[in-house]
Design goal:
alpha/beta; single chain; 5 helices
């Protein structure tokens, strides 16, 4: 079984990132996570169903629009009822690493992750990239 630090390092080792759950509201955690990637010069794509641009970056409408899904780590900051469908897309697209921010999962999401053998590549136990991300990046140097 992969531990949290190993999963975090795996997540941050991919060349592309996507954020699902960002919005135009600067006070929301989805937008803060998007800004975290931008501030660290990480190639990030916001995923939003209706906005064409967030934080000055062109959005895509769905994870299915990712140009390189197998080389993209995905941050999820959505309500659990949305997250469960995202996890299904992630599995279908063979996305290699996922970071579910605190509050993005529920019992059904956790069960889906476990039942589909995704536990080694999905962070879902309350880890937060805003708190842990910089320390993981430092440890990877």
């Amino acid at each position: 079984m992969t531990n949290t630090i190993q999963k975090q390092k795996l997540f941050l080792s991919f060349p592309h990132y996507a954020v699902v759950g960002a919005s135009t509201d600067q006070s929301k955690f989805g937008t803060k996570v998007l800004q975290w990637y931008i501030q660290r010069d990480r190639p990030v794509t916001p995923v939003h169903p209706s906005n064409d641009e967030l934080e000055g970056i062109k959005t895509i409408r769905s994870l299915t629009d990712l140009p390189n899904p197998t080389e993209t780590s995905v941050s999820i900051i959505t309500p659990a009822k949305i997250t469960i469908n995202l996890l299904k897309q992630i599995e279908e697209l063979s996305i290699p690493a996922v970071w579910c921010q605190p509050g993005a999962t529920d019992v059904a999401c956790v069960q889906y992750i476990k039942d589909n053998g995704m536990s080694d590549r999905v962070l879902f136990e309350g880890e937060c990239i805003l708190i842990d991300g910089d320390g993981v990046l430092q440890a990877m140097l």
